[in-house]
């Protein structure tokens, strides 16, 4: 699933996602003090714009220029100039700035296992002291392998994989499977989310 794959997907229809922020993000971030946030795989921008409305300064990153253009257009519609920086990058190969973000939000981002966990370690390193990592994914029990498409849910990181990489500088606040609080995406059978939240100690 490279840059061309994602851009083709976005260009194949007028809108890919609902336009509403992810339910896990809303639930888990409401009690946090706003600061700098990194939205990993921001898509059409719903999460980034929700964060900006709630006082965050957001760096929103995606690999698809089409998605980023739609997100930027949506920002103009709600007049939040300067609250979000839309950035095209592949965070699986180019790590974000280390120690720069009070929140690193990874919502349903397809992050494949790597031998040295390079991309995942880059996201962990991006969390500032006192900051939060929030990771949400579809429950693997809701996913079926599609060998003809090269998809196997076991190829992607889940919360337990992340927990194994954390040292004493982290405090795990949530590592669980939950019923979805938002409608199931059309054409899917996703009924549960896996949620991981951890705070980097000062």
Automatic annotation (TrEMBL):
Residues 178-189 have a biased composition (Polar residues). The keyword Transferase applies. This is Methyltransferase family protein. Coiled coil: none annotated. GO terms for molecular function: methyltransferase activity. Gene3D superfamilies: Vaccinia Virus protein VP39 (3.40.50.150). InterPro entries: Methyltransf_25, SAM-dependent_MTases_sf. One of its GO terms (biological process) is methylation. It holds the Pfam family Methyltransf_25. Keywords: Methyltransferase, S-adenosyl-L-methionine, Transferase. Residues 178-202 are annotated as: Disordered. Residues 38-131 form the Methyltransferase domain. The keyword Methyltransferase applies.
């Amino acid at each position: 699933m490279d840059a061309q794959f994602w851009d083709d997907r976005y260009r194949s229809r007028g809108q890919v996602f609902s336009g509403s922020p992810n339910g896990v993000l809303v639930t888990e971030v409401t009690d946090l003090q706003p600061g700098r946030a990194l939205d990993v795989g921001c898509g059409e921008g719903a999460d980034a714009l929700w964060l900006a409305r709630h006082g965050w300064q957001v760096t929103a990153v995606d690999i698809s220029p089409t998605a980023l253009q739609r997100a930027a257009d949506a920002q103009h519609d709600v007049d939040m100039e300067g609250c979000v920086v839309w950035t095209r990058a592949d965070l699986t190969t180019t790590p974000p700035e280390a120690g720069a973000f009070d929140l690193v939000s990874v919502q349903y981002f397809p992050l494949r296992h790597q031998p040295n966990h390079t991309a995942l370690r880059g996201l962990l390193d991006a969390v500032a002291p006192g900051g939060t990592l929030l990771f949400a994914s579809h429950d693997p029990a809701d996913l079926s392998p599609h060998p003809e498409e090269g998809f196997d849910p076991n190829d992607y990181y889940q919360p337990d994989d992340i927990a194994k990489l954390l040292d004493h500088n982290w405090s795990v606040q949530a590592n669980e499977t939950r019923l979805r609080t938002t409608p199931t995406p059309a054409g899917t059978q996703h009924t549960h989310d896996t949620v991981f939240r951890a705070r980097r100690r000062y």
